[in-house]
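Q: I'm writing up a methods section and want to include an example of the input and output format. Could you take the sequence below and give the corresponding predicted C-alpha cells, formatted cleanly so I can copy it straight into the document?
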Amino acid sequence: MPKLTHPQPSTIQISVINESTVLADADVAPVVAVLQKQVTNDFLPAWGTDAELTMVAKGDQPASGSWWLVLLDDSDQANALGYHDLTTEGLPIGKVFAASDLKAGTSWTVTASHELLEMLGDPNINLSVFVQNSDTAGVLYAYEVCDACEDDSLGYQIDNVLLSDFVYPSWFESFRTEGSTQFDRMGKINTPFQLLVNGYIGTYNVSAGSGWQQQTAEKRATNVLYRGAVGTRRERRTIPHDQWINSLPQRKIVGNAQKYRQQLQTIQRRREAA
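A: Here is the clean output for your methods example:
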C-alpha cells in the first residue's frame, strides 16, 4: 500500500501596505524582511503556518488574493481611508497603528509582529478554546497568540528589530502541568493560560452570558476599558461577522490617502502660522 502523506499547507500571501504618515517606505522595508524571518523560522515550526510577505509601497496595489497587513497612523485614519474589517475581496486584514504606538511610547515593530502572527493564528477572529469548569459552566479563551505576552519588555530581536513574543499551542492545553513543556517563544511562561506583565486574554463565560471581556495579568475582568480601538482584533471579535465591512478598493483608498495627507499638511501650516 502507498504511504499516506500529510499535505503541506499552502503558503499564505500577505501584502504589507504602508499608509502611515509617520513611517517612510525605507523604514518599513527592512522590518518586513525581519517579520518574514520570524514567521518562517520561529512561527512556522510551532504552529505549522507559513506566509510570504511582500512590501507594498505607498500608492501601489496589493496582489489579488493576498491578505493585508496595513500600517496606519491610528484608527481614525483607517476609517478615513476606507480600511475596514476585511480586504476588498473579503479576506483577512490586520492593522498596525504606528502613530498611536509612538504617542504611547511603544514599538510599532512589536505591534506589527503581534498583528501579523495573530492574523496567521486566527485569521477569521472566531477561534477559541473551551475550558469546562463543571457540568454546566466553563470559559472560552480567545485564540490570540500574542496577547498573553505582548509587552515590549518581553519581546526579542532579530537583526536589531524588536518583535513580539508569542505563545505555543501548548498555552491553550489545560492538561499541561507547570514547566512540563515550552509555552511561549521566549520561555517566560510556565503554565497554560498564564498572563505575563501587561498581558491579557479575551474570555467568554458561557454561563454568565456577559459577552467577551478582557482578563488581565492582574486577574480582574474588564470590558469596555480594554475593548481596543475601532477596527482592532479585540473590537472585531465582539462584532457579529455579518456586520463586518469590506475595505474600499485600493485605488479609492490611495485617493483618500492623498486627501488625508493634504489635510494634515494644511492643519500643520495653520498651526505654524498661529
